[in-house]
Specification:
The complex is a heterodimer. Chain A is mainly α. Chain A has 19 helices and no strands. Chain A has helices at about 5-20, 25-45, 45-65, 70-105, 120-135, 145-155, 155-160, 165-175, 180-215, 220-255, 270-275, 280-290, 300-320, 325-340, 350-370, 375-385, 395-415, 420-430, 430-455. In chain A, helix 2 (about 25-45) packs across helix 6 (about 145-155) and helix 4 (about 70-105) runs antiparallel to helix 5 (about 120-135). In chain A, about 45% of the residues are buried. By secondary structure, chain B is of the alpha/beta class. In chain B, strands 7-6-16-14-15-13-11 form a seven-stranded mixed beta sheet, sandwiched between helices. A three-stranded antiparallel beta sheet of chain B has the order 3-4-5, covered by helices on one side. Chain B has a two-stranded antiparallel sheet with strand order 1-2. The radius of gyration of chain B is 24 Å and the shape is globular. Classes of the chains: A mainly alpha, B alpha/beta. At the A-B interface, helix 1, helix 2, helix 9, helix 17 and helix 19 of A face helix 1, helix 2, helix 3 and strand 3 of B.
Chain lengths: ~475, ~400
């Protein structure tokens, strides 16, 4: 089940929140856990047991860490916990890919391993790991109730697509939280904004991007290639940030406050800054649990470079079991190394130039991320520069420019704070109640539009196009 | 006041989602979607031994039965058309309200299988076999959707098919080449429906006439004049009837249903005898097979001529030749049957997609005494069912 679906919006939400709001405070955690497990089981009826097992192991090892005294024993428990979680992740997400790659390299024909990827395993594994490490570091108190830990890890708003929530950010709210109407209202609005980003922008932009990448042999013009890439750049932002907005909004509706995950990343003026604004929870996770323990930047330059490349390689690989993701991560690792070694952030470079340079680097990076193979990525990069293209403009480019240019322009504006600033400045001139009413009205127009688009996304005609 | 607004936000949001939730439970299930032209999922049987299928089926069910689904699909279509998009719902929308489908490249493997099956069938007996490639709308009316519709795929599909058939020794007829040569762009607009995938009776008639001319030139027809327009009764139904285009259905009929609906029928159909199957000896009424939708206020392509029936045959004792033709076809053939039945003593029409008779292709040649086999398909169709039928 995903948030941007009819079944979630019009079946899960009314059923869950009715039970949640009607339940006495002491039972709300239980309702939340059951609802989250149902949410997960709807898409993964068997892998929900895997997740519960993972939570149970984390629970037991967390309590062992809390009550053990000798540091050596605690360290062994930590290693055991990390090994367990990472093994699960590697087996289900990477094993098939690693074996296939090994066979290709060695020429050996071994058994094929193809396990279905459990939904959200990358996210809940990282949450479980952050909990166990924070308990080890004595930064957070251990959770003595299994179902409360299950609530932290399996909570449906952030389970399948983040943000990666730290236990310390919500442990107090797990124990006690207030449901206030203004908060619920703000949560609803935030959820609907996220839904709009995903359904109205990301999905539509995705159709354009997919159409361009799907052209056999990438027989496209230069303009079509750039339109496809820009569409993908915008799609991935609205998709991911929209999902984070929905998660944050749903959390608020339940009384939880999650961290922001995106802060207008396409306004960045350096790649380092980009990663302080893009998928913030992932970047901070790798920083706190991999980069800093390795020494971070407080080591020799050589070691710093090593640390950066390792962290960024892992960051890339975390996104998917494919060499293109690893290359994508290393691409950023190299860029950040260059920025740090050459101290580019400290140099006097005009802001506009910094911004354009960063934007170009990020956009080109998405080619690697989107492509299925390094070869396809290289081919696409060539198309961007006019290599092997069908000229500068073709029929597809004319069609996209006609049909999708308004969407592309609006989406580009939506990547920055300008629309928000404009609406804020308009709203400031209105009485508070009118402003709130206006905001709520816009949110409901969003709901109507999103419902239209969601129903259309299930449009499934009997296409007998051979007739 | 702010608290009231907060209440309003929460009440309206939960009110709307709960209302739809309740409507979906209490409203009766709908059987079919008009906009999608398909049956809708009904309440599934819950088999707890396969939970994955349970959730998939229930998801599909609630989506299909979502309240006001047709209206919401229509709203989306209205939005897309209102925004002036040239391409939506896999359909090109031109300024004049002409609708054209997206053309997919035919996979070489699939085309090769088709050509092989056709060539093998041609080599199986002495009965001549001809493959007529008829022009699809996109090819004939590319000027309407230029410069943002790319016709290279359609051209490539046709060129590759004709080339491979010729290389395999199969006789071919390229109707599209004749249309492009003989008729202007404006004239060709009169051969197709605006809001349907297909051509109209005028386009079909001219194609059949051209094909018969080519067959005659190849010495495959007996002596006798070929039928002309004056040998039929022509009618124009567009004044009194609405036309349900299959592409317009994708847009919930938001585009005009008024268009030219030419129709031709035999001058005297009383002598024609229709049969449902190979072994039928009792003829069926013409109205059971031809023009089944003529009595309706809103007519569609198949209702004007005939549907994609698996098998039927027409016997005309007063035909211009005493030959029997076996036509293997797709839906583009449907409006040509009356032309062929004027020319041939017996016309056997088979749509491999629906064929259910117990006779194989060679057996049919013998059972029906076939003198000529005509494959009549539009240029982008590499029919897998035809391959299965011929094999």
């Amino acid at each position: 089940m995903v948030f941007s679906s009819i079944i979630f919006l019009y079946y899960f939400i009314p059923a869950f929140f009715l039970l949640y709001y009607l339940a006495p405070a002491r039972y709300q955690n239980g309702v939340c856990v059951l609802g989250s497990l149902f949410f997960y089981a709807w898409g993964e009826p068997y892998y929900v047991l895997l997740m519960l097992f993972s939570i149970w192991v984390n629970y037991r090892l967390g309590r062992k860490l809390a009550f053990d005294r000798p540091d050596g024993l605690r360290r062994r428990t930590l290693i055991l916990a990390c090994t367990f979680h990472l093994t699960l992740l590697v087996v289900f997400k990477y094993l098939g890919f690693l074996l296939r790659s090994a066979y290709q390299l060695t020429g050996w024909e071994g058994p094929e391993v193809s396990l279905a990827l459990p939904l959200g395993i990358s996210f809940y594994t990282f949450q479980a790991l952050s909990y166990i490490v924070d308990v080890y570091r004595r930064q957070v108190p251990v959770q003595n109730r299994f179902w409360n830990l299950a609530l932290y890890i399996s909570m449906f708003p952030q389970l399948v697509a983040g943000p990666i929530v730290r236990y310390g950010d919500i442990n107090k709210e797990i124990d006690s939280r207030k449901l206030a109407l203004p908060e619920i209202s703000q949560g609803i609005v935030r959820f609907l904004i996220g839904l709009g980003k995903k359904v109205l922008f990301a999905n539509s932009l995705g159709e354009l991007a997919d159409a361009v990448w799907a052209v056999p042999g990438l027989e496209i013009s230069v303009t079509t290639a750039w339109l496809g890439l820009i569409a993908y750049t915008l799609q991935i932002y609205f998709d991911f940030s929209g999902y984070s907005d929905m998660a944050i909004g749903l959390g608020r509706m339940m009384g939880f406050h999650f961290i922001e995950n995106f802060r207008y990343p396409y306004l960045s003026r350096s790649v380092s800054e980009f990663w302080r604004r893009w998928h913030i929870s992932l970047g901070s996770w790798f920083r706190d649990y991999v980069y800093i323990p390795l020494g971070g930047s407080r080591v020799s330059q050589g070691k710093m470079i090593r640390n950066l490349l390792l962290v960024w390689g892992l960051t890339g690989f975390w996104h998917g079991a494919n060499w293109t993701f690893l290359l994508w991560g290393l691409y950023y690792g190299v860029l950040i190394c260059v920025e740090k070694v050459c101290r580019l952030e400290e140099r006097r470079i005009p802001s506009a130039l910094r911004h354009l340079g960063c934007l170009l680097a990020v956009i080109l990076g998405w080619v690697l991320f989107r492509s299925d193979t390094a070869g396809q990525a290289a081919m696409f990069l060539g198309r961007l520069m006019g290599v092997g293209t069908n000229g500068w403009v073709d029929a597809a480019a004319r069609l996209y420019l006609h049909d999708e240019l308004p969407l592309l322009l609006l989406a580009s504006l939506g990547c920055g704070p300008w629309l928000r600033r404009l609406s804020s400045s308009l709203v400031e001139r209105l009485p508070v109640s009118v402003a709130e009413l206006l905001r709520s009205s816009v949110a409901f127009i969003l709901l109507v539009l999103c419902t239209i688009f969601l129903v259309n996304s299930t449009y499934n005609p009997f296409i007998y196009f051979r007739f | 006041m702010k608290r009231v607004i907060s209440y309003a936000t929460a009440v309206m949001f939960f009110g709307v989602v709960t209302l739809f939730f309740l409507l979906s439970i209490f409203l009766p299930d709908r059987l079919a979607s008009v906009a999608e032209g398909r049956m809708l999922m009904q309440r599934p049987v819950t088999d707890l031994t396969d939970l994955t299928t349970v959730t998939e089926n229930w998801t599909e069910y609630v989506v299909d039965q979502f309240p006001f689904r047709e209206e919401l699909l229509e709203a989306y279509s209205a939005l897309e058309l209102g925004l002036g998009k040239h391409y939506t719902r896999n359909t090109y929308v031109t300024e004049g309200g002409w609708l054209m489908t997206y053309i997919y490249p035919v996979q070489p493997v699939r085309r090769q299988a088709l050509v092989q099956a056709v060539a093998d069938a041609a080599g199986q007996s002495d009965v001549p076999l001809v493959y007529a490639v008829v022009p699809q709308k996109n090819d004939m009316l590319a000027h309407l959707a230029a410069p943002w519709m790319d016709n290279r795929v359609s051209d490539a599909n046709k060129a590759a098919l004709l080339e491979e058939l010729a290389a395999a020794g199969v006789a071919t007829i390229d109707v599209g080449a004749d249309f492009l040569q003989q008729y202007t762009a404006e004239e060709r607009e009169g051969f197709y429906y605006r809001t349907d995938f297909h051509w109209n009776a005028r386009g079909a008639f001219l194609a059949a006439r051209y094909i018969s001319g080519q067959l005659a030139a190849a010495g495959l027809l007996g002596d006798g004049d070929l039928p002309e327009e004056t040998d039929f009764v022509w009618d124009e139904l567009g004044q009194e009837h609405l036309f349900q285009g299959d592409l317009n259905r994708r847009f919930s009929n938001l585009l005009s249903m008024r268009e030219e609906i030419p129709l031709y029928t035999p001058a005297d159909s009383s002598q024609l005898r229709y049969y449902w199957s190979v072994d039928d000896s009792r003829p069926a009424a013409r109205e059971e097979i031809m023009g089944t939708g003529l009595g309706k206020q809103t007519v569609d392509y198949n209702g004007l001529s005939t549907a994609n029936l698996g098998y039927y045959r027409v016997v005309n004792p007063d035909a211009r030749t005493n030959q029997t033709i076996l036509i293997l076809k797709d839906s583009y053939q449907n409006p040509t049957t009356d032309y062929w039945s004027e020319l041939f003593y017996q016309v056997v029409v088979i749509d491999p997609r629906e064929y259910g008779e117990p006779y194989s292709f060679p057996q049919l040649l013998e059972e029906n005494g076939v003198d000529l086999v005509l494959l009549l398909y539009h240029q982008n169709n590499a029919s897998e069912e035809l391959v299965s039928f011929l094999s």
